[in-house]
Design brief:
14% of the residues lie in helices and 39% in strands. With 276 residues, the protein is mostly beta strands. Strands 1, 3, 4, 7, 12, 13, 14 and 16 form an 8-stranded antiparallel β-sheet that branches. Strands 2, 5, 6, 8, 9, 10, 11 and 15 form an 8-stranded antiparallel β-sheet that branches. Helix 1 (4-15) packs across helix 3. The chain is globular, with a radius of gyration of 21 Å.
């Protein structure tokens, strides 16, 4: 006799599903408390125009730089896999707004970060950064002041870039991003939307060996930002980070559902054998 649990696991493997959802390593529904995070430079907890407690990585002032990383290093899953989702908002722009926000996984320190022109990310080795950039820095940015890029080892000339976004970063509206890295396939995917619903298709997809880039599975995760002659409030509204490849917003079937699916497929196979 095949036990239901065994069948569920077998079907999960067959369909590339996980029976048990990943543990959530980091979860902030708001930033009324930033316990567990190291805030650096001009980063601070703040109250936005909607009276929400947000993580303001840089305020709407010139010459600002900030970063916010997990206080302790997170041990990432197999082949440094991870999944994350966060909500962010750029507001109170001046001089057209700049320089943007970067989600960062790095193995340097929880106090890492740089100056405004590099969005606080430039020069940060052993790292991967996904930049949401609202400033046109020329050809390295695809001559766009509204783009998303994947940056490696502190180089803000993106290894992959998309300048045809479904949203305007400087809209002042809440925006939603999902970022997933599958270490088994070395595939890094970025999704972005103006509504809180995970898009089926990725905005950016890039193959990279992050285990080699990071050098260790023990990484600090968080955000960097910066301003210069132009700026904005670069706010993170909420954030969830998982220490393995377990995309946020993708339903995971319950074991019983998998068992029923498996039983149905086994029944179909038996019927085909009888007919033959």
């Amino acid at each position: 006799m095949i036990r239901a649990t065994t069948l569920a696991i077998g079907m999960a493997l067959a369909f590339g599903l996980s029976v048990n959802a990943s543990a959530t390593t980091i979860s902030y529904t708001d930033f009324s408390s930033t316990a567990g995070m190291q805030l650096n430079g001009n980063a601070a907890s703040a109250v936005d125009g909607s009276a929400r407690n947000v993580l303001r990585v840089t305020p709407s002032l010139s010459g600002q730089s900030g970063s916010a990383f997990s206080t302790s290093a997170v041990t990432l899953g197999a082949d440094v896999s991870f999944s994350t989702k966060f909500t962010f908002n750029f507001n109170r722009q001046f001089n057209t707004g700049a320089d943007g926000l970067v989600f960062v996984v790095q193995t340097v320190s929880n106090t890492a970060g740089g100056a405004g022109g590099g969005i606080g990310y430039a020069g940060l080795f052993n790292s991967v950064g996904i930049e949401f950039d609202n400033w046109n820095n020329g050809a390295g940015d695809g001559n766009s002041d509204n783009h998303v890029g994947i940056d490696i080892n502190g180089n803000v000339s993106s290894a992959a870039i998309n300048t045809s976004l479904p949203v305007v970063l400087d809209s002042g509206n809440d925006l939603f991003s999902w970022i997933d890295y599958n270490g088994a396939t070395n595939l890094l995917e970025v999704r972005l939307s103006g509504v809180d619903s995970r898009p089926l298709a990725s905005l950016l997809s890039y193959t990279v060996d992050l285990a080699a880039v990071l050098g260790t599975p023990n990484a600090f995760v968080g955000f960097t930002s910066g301003t210069g002659w132009a700026g904005a409030n670069h706010d993170v509204i909420s954030w969830e980070f998982r220490d393995t490849y377990a995309p946020v917003g993708v339903p995971v079937p319950e074991p019983m559902t998998l068992a029923l699916l498996g039983a149905g497929l086994l029944g179909m196979a038996a019927a085909r054998r009888r007919r033959s």
